[in-house]
Specification:
1 helix; alpha/beta
Length: about 190
């Protein structure tokens, strides 16, 4: 009986460690997205294109991620202390200028003007962009947090970097920006 409990306890610790690692990876990905979004917001407006030029170069490849260190052993959980009294609710502060609107669809989804960050969590799904016309400089971030391929589709005949669609594998992210006619990968 004690051996069964130890096996079950070991299994529970392994599962807890696996879930903690996954949550840390998702948390790191989200932190990177928010930092990139804040850099975009803080960067200011882009200057005019050179005389007669309409060509924009491709974005360079992203470097390989560094390796994670090994996880140390988990310590023994202590007893839970008593809950203290609830304090008074403070005043609500003003909304900051760098706040992102987040949506997490699990099925096919058409982006509305209110969404900035789309965390696509389905098995396989299509995220359709709104029209690029009239929203020059508008930026959307789409991340695949699901278990299958996410297809990002331009609106109607509009393209994304010259292609009708862009496919995202699990854990991939794409940042796209409107040039008032089509979408471009940033």
């Amino acid at each position: 009986m004690a051996q069964k409990r130890r096996k079950k306890s070991n299994y529970m610790r392994q599962e807890e460690t696996r879930l903690q690692d996954h949550l840390k990876a998702v948390d790191d990905d989200l932190r990177n997205i928010f930092e990139e979004a804040n850099e975009i917001i803080d960067a200011g407006t882009t200057g005019p294109t050179g005389a007669g030029s309409t060509i924009t170069g491709n974005t360079g490849d992203t470097g390989d991620p560094g390796s994670n260190g090994s996880q140390g052993p988990q310590g023994i959980t202590g007893n839970t202390g008593p809950t203290g009294p609830t304090g008074d609710t403070g005043d609500t502060g003003p909304t900051g200028p760098n706040e992102l609107d987040l949506t997490s669809p699990t099925g096919d989804y058409t982006i509305t003007g209110d969404a900035d960050l789309i965390l696509a969590g389905g098995i396989t799904q299509t995220i359709t962009l709104p029209t690029a016309v009239g929203v020059e400089g508008k930026i959307y971030d789409v991340k695949n947090i699901g278990t299958g391929t996410v297809t990002v589709d331009g609106n109607g005949a509009e393209t994304i970097d010259g292609s009708a669609t862009q496919d995202l594998a699990v854990d991939e992210c794409i940042t796209i920006v409107s040039d008032n006619a089509n979408w471009w990968v940033k």
